[in-house]
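Folds vary. Our protein:
___
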Amino acid sequence: MTKRMQAYRTAAVLLAAAALAACEKNSVQQLPVEPLLDARIKFFNFGVNAPGVNFYADETKMTAIQSGTGVELNTGVAYGGVGNGGAYSQIAPGQYTLTGRIAAATDKNLPIATVSMTIADGKYYSLYMSGFYNATAKTVEGFVVEDPFVAPTDYSVATVRFVHAMSNASPMTLYAKNTTTGVEVAVGAEVAYQGAGVFTALPAGVYDLNTRYTGSAANVITRASVSFNGGSVYTVGARGDITVTSTTATNRPLLDNTANR
C-alpha cells in the first residue's frame, strides 16, 4: 500500500468515527444558534416525588448527566436539582415545547411535564417542574418564569428574588434578616404558586431567610446563614410539601438558593 493510499484510508476512518460520534444518541445536543445569540434557559426539578429527568426543547436534549466513561447515566436531574450544574443553556429564539422526560431505563424519555412557550432573543428564563408527581398518570406540573435581572453596577449589593414552586402553600413573602446588623427586609412582595417576585437589592452579607403568609408573623419556611455576595444575582425558590414537619424528610419545605450570575 502506498503512503498516499494509507493516508486516504486513515482519513476515511477518522471521518467515519466523527460521524458516529455526531450521531451518539446519548449526547447532549445544542440547538442551532447564531453568533452572539443571548437567549438562555435553566431547568429545575422541584416536582415532589418526581423521578429524575432530562429536559428537552422540542426534540433537542438540553440536560443530561454523563459518567466518567462518557455514557449517559439514567439518574437525570433528580428532585431538588438544577440541570447542567445550575448553568444556563443557550437556546435560539422561537416557539418551543419544553419537557421533562424520565431518565431511567423504565419509561425512558416519557414526558412527565410539558410547557409550551415562546423564547425571546436576549432574554433569560427558568423552567420549574413543580407540585406533586402523579405516579399513576406519570405527570407533574411545570411552569416557566423570565429572569429579568440586569448586570450589576454596584458591587456592594447582591440582587435576590423569590420563586414559589410549592403547590400546597399559600402565597408567601420572602424575608431576609442580616445576621450582622439584625435588619430584616422583605425581598419583593407576596408571591403566589408558580409566580416570581422582583429582583431586589440587598447589601452583601449573610442572611437568615424566612417566608411568611400575609398578615402573619409566623415563619413558614426558614433557612439560616445564606451568603449573598456583592455583584451576584440569586433566586431563592420554595419547594417541597408544606404539610411535612420532619426536619430530615426529602420532601420537607425548603428554600433553595441558586445563583443566576
